[in-house]
Amino acid sequence: MNTDEFRKYGYYLIDWISNYFENISNIPVKSKVEPGEIYRSLPQLPPEEKEDFIKILDDFNRIILPGITHWQHPNFFAFFPANNSFPSILGEILTSAIGAQCMIWETSPSATELEQLTLDWLKRSIGLPEEFSGVIQDTASTATLVSILTAREKYSNFSINKEGFQNNKFRVYCSQEAHSSIDKAVKISGIGENNLVKIEVDDKFSLIPEKLETAILQDMENGMQPLCVVSALGTTGSLAIDPIEKIAEICQKYSLWHHIDAAYAGSALLLEEFRNPIKNLELCDTFVFNPHKWLFTNFDCSAYYVKDKHSLLKTFEITPSYLQSDYDRRVTNYRDWGIQLGRRFRALKLWFVLRNYGLDNIKTILRNHIDLAKYFAEWIENQKNFELLAPVNLNLVCFRFKPAEYEESEINDLNKKIEKNINNTGKAYISHTILNGKYTLRAVFGQTNVAKRNIDILIEEINKAARSL
Questions:
Q1: What is the bridge-based pairing of β-strands 196-199 and 170-175?
Q2: Which residues make Cβ contacts (< 8 Å) with residue 193, sequence separation at least 6?
Q3: What is the DSSP string of 32-95?
Q4: For the CA atoms of the chain, what is the radius of gyration?
């Protein structure tokens, strides 16, 4: 493909993207293909001769697109959003075109310094002190692993990287509602799943600090070494917020590493009314949230902050001769801030979003999403056969269908059917979790272009699904 062809098809794709967003409401949200259907629809060997680009695009529209679940659809209410925006898409196009490998400062100074700048912008905007240093990781899962590895090395005097575990007695703590990435992190770090202590939660699904302190003391009495607490600033199941203030005090009291996982809800710290009640945030050791969830920035872009930069670097720094440069003492080399050597220019799309929206406009949209959740929650509360199952934090509503004529043992199956029936229509997409043993329907209102009319569509589909049962 030459530049003339690239220009021609590039214009074509921009038109395709524009038409996609203009007409996305008319497309089924969730893919309806069967397992293996896409694979069987495509040739099993690559072509020997070049193919016309229009033919490739035709196959994309005919075969690939039906197998896509449309996360940018305004009726996407499942999981947590992975929303994007036009400035982010354009930034991503430039990132792809430049094709820079941003592992060290010298390989693209702008990539490093723009990452420093955008992370500083976000740090100040969400209320983290200047002593924190930021880096963009691919996901919060990676950031949590990086945090636990850093804690492991710091508390072992950096011996495990060199010698391996000699006698592992480390313990990591989180709530029963914490994300599965913590389980995976303790496995990968060598600490072991059996040394992850899940702490009981209260009726709001938040970690009980007194139970945490009891577990720490019991482990100390049994010769174990409490290492790290992972607090949830918004759990995956219900967006429950752990008592950060009290957990921070416990970590200070027993000299534990404190990591805050704010993967989804962290974007709401831009809002003063959400940020101000959360105390002792600045006492944590590491903090992560994902602009690629609720800040209109394409996946992947996870903002990770660390207070003790020296320990992070000492954990991950490896400098073979082929990566050394004359600038190393004067610059930041982000290859030393995490697991991967290779790094994409992720900061560019984030910079485009922050500049093109502006903080005031971003705050307005976030507040609107929160108001939409309140609107939906009020509807649930006014229905005699539905109930809320968790406090409505920010823009997530957890609920279930509970008709009086059914036994409790039958209610879970009813709600599975409700979810399946709604999702099979293609008109809306919700997901579920389990809270106190109850099959819980989840609807989150964080898709970039969601509006009240989309919530009304969801309500209509819920009513239809309930009547069908």
A1: parallel
A2: 183, 186, 187
A3: -PPTTHHHHTS-SS--SS---HHHHHHHIIIIIGGG---TTSTTB-SSS-----HHHHHHHHHH
A4: 24
How big, in percent rounded to 5, are the helix, strand and coil portions of the chain?
50, 15, 35
The pLDDT assigned to 327 comes to 73
Whether the upstream peptide bond of residue 300 has omega within 30° of 0, thus cis, is yes
Task: Tally Cβ neighbours within 10 Å of residue 260.
Answer: 26
Query: In the sheet where 257-261 sits, what is the strand order?
Result: 133-137, 302-306, 286-289, 257-261, 225-232, 170-175, 196-199
Sign of CA dihedral 272, 278, 279, 283: negative
Residue 22 pLDDT greater than 90, yes or no:
yes
272 three-state secondary structure: helix
Report residue 369 CA to chain centroid gap. 17
Q: The tokens of 366 are what? A: 């976030």
* Spatial separation of the C-alpha atoms in residues 231 and 76, rounded to whole Å: 28
- Would the pLDDT of 438 be above 70? yes
**How many Å apart are CA 135 and CA 315, to the nearest integer?**
15
Dihedral angle of Cα 308, 114, 124, 270, to the nearest 10 degrees: -120
- Decide the pairing of beta strands 431-435 and 396-401: unpaired
Section 435-444 average pLDDT: 95
Between CA 227 and CA 268 the distance in angstroms is 29
Residues 6 or more apart from 23 whose CB is under 8 A from it? none
Q: What pLDDT is stored for residue 322 in this prediction? A: 66
Q: Are 250 and 195 in contact (CB under 8 A)?
A: no
Alpha helices in 201-327 (DSSP H): 209-221, 244-254, 272-275, 291-294, 309-316
Dmax (CA) for the chain in angstroms is: 76
pLDDT per residue as tens digits for the range 298-311: 999 999 999 999 99
Cα distance between residue 314 and residue 329, in whole Å: 15
Measured at the CA of 146, the angle between CA 145 and CA 149, to 5 degrees, comes to: 85
Domains and CATH numbers, the chain: 3-68 (1.20.1340.10), 93-357 (3.40.640.10), 359-468 (3.90.1150.170)
Torsion of CA 179, 181, 183, 186, to 10 degrees: -140
- Which pLDDT does position 318 carry in this prediction? 83
Q: Using alpha carbons, select from 395, 432, 387 the residue that is nearest to residue 413.
A: 432
